[in-house]
Write a structure and sequence with these properties.
Shape: globular
Distance between the termini: 19 Å
Number of strands: 0
Structural class: mainly alpha
């Protein structure tokens, strides 16, 4: 399969002879994306391969994390963590000390790549983790920034080793105790806080839901409503859904309320999917409809498969993954011939999952 296949012109006619042929084509699209010299496309390919947990993707993913010069290859380590193959460890270990990226002494990116490699080993085989996790836990403020960056991954780890227990404890203490003022950090920790859902996490989410940033408020209210304590905060969700000045926040609040049975909130999301002029907000509404598996929104989501914006189309393909209707699969097959590589990769992932992933 040529590494440039993903950039070839779409074919006008699609006629797959079998599900095996379709799967082969989809796998080729995903692996071609992984091999491109583009930090976003390659990382997106790694994300999708990890979500599929494809064993056959382990070697290409290892090539990717070894050779890519981009910080975004943290997505490759996360994919390897999701697949969990022991044979990957011997090639991950050296990357903790030498991640093959520019060592930015002021920013955290190179250390984040090292930390991502260490997290993958911590899940696959803790005995092979070289001690970088202990270094992070013991270095106090000099490494604190890694906790919020990786908090959604860390809080979901099974506590199968003392290093994981220690790291999770330090992470939870940090993200619950500190008041953040950077919007990106507020948005990053919100999913982790929602997953934990204890009293301290809830208070932190309620505080973030009052932040000046629409992105911080939106993430906070959705993950608060989606947490185990979400039903206790319907009033706050309804207030933001009705009165927040940012449509982004209202969409996120409406999605959270839908999870709690507030069916009338679908109108706001459907209106944004079909009528919002801002393509980012259309994409947000599409994403949230898929995240809450809103069957009523399916006709609107199908219409967005032909949206003029490629990111909206990509989000529409992903949002429709919860629908396994064979008729839907035919529509997604057409998206594998989209003019944009990320849309094609998302469609390839959809079809790989539909046809059983690993063989």
């Amino acid at each position: 399969m040529s590494r440039n296949l993903i950039f070839q012109q779409p074919e006008k006619v699609v006629c797959w002879k079998s599900s095996h042929e379709l799967r082969s084509r989809a796998m080729g699209i995903l692996l071609s994306g992984l091999a491109t010299n583009d930090p976003v496309i390659s990382a997106d390919s790694a994300r999708l391969l990890g979500d599929l947990a494809l064993i056959e993707a382990v070697d290409p993913l290892l090539d990717y994390v070894e050779q890519s010069p981009y910080y975004s290859k943290t997505a490759g380590f996360h994919a390897l963590m999701q697949i969990g193959q022991q044979k990957a460890c011997c090639r991950i270990v050296p990357l903790i000390d030498n991640p093959h990226v520019y060592d930015d002494w002021f920013w955290c990116c190179a250390r984040a790549v090292r930390f991502s490699a260490a997290l993958a080993l911590l899940v696959i085989d803790p005995a092979q983790e070289s001690g970088f996790i202990d270094e992070v836990c013991e270095n106090g403020k000099s490494m604190d920034y890694l906790y919020p960056l990786f908090s959604p991954v860390i809080v979901e780890m099974d506590e199968t080793h003392e290093k994981i227990v220690r790291l999770k404890k330090r992470t939870l203490e940090f993200i619950c105790a500190k008041k953040y003022f950077k919007p990106d950090i507020m948005a990053l920790v919100s999913p982790a806080l929602g997953l934990v859902g204890d009293a301290a996490s809830v208070e932190q989410l309620k505080w973030i839901a009052k932040a000046p940033s629409r992105f911080a408020r939106g993430e906070a209210i959705f993950h608060l409503l989606a947490s185990g304590n979400g039903s206790q905060h319907v009033d706050l969700g309804a207030e933001l859904c009705e009165t927040d000045p940012a449509l982004y926040v209202r969409i996120k609040a409406a999605a959270g309320l839908l999870l709690l049975g507030q069916e009338e909130c679908i109108n706001l999301i459907e209106n944004a999917i079909d009528g919002e002029k801002d393509s980012f907000l259309r994409a947000t509404a599409v994403e949230m409809a898929g995240k809450v598996k809103c069957a009523k929104a399916i006709p609107s989501l199908i219409r967005r498969l032909n949206d003029t914006d490629s990111y909206v189309r990509q989000c529409a393909v992903e949002a429709l993954e919860f629908n396994k209707d064979p008729v839907m699969v035919q529509k997604i097959e057409a998206a594998m011939e989209d003019c944009h590589p990320r849309v094609r990769m998302q469609a390839a992932k959809f079809l790989m999952a539909f046809h059983g992933g690993n063989e």
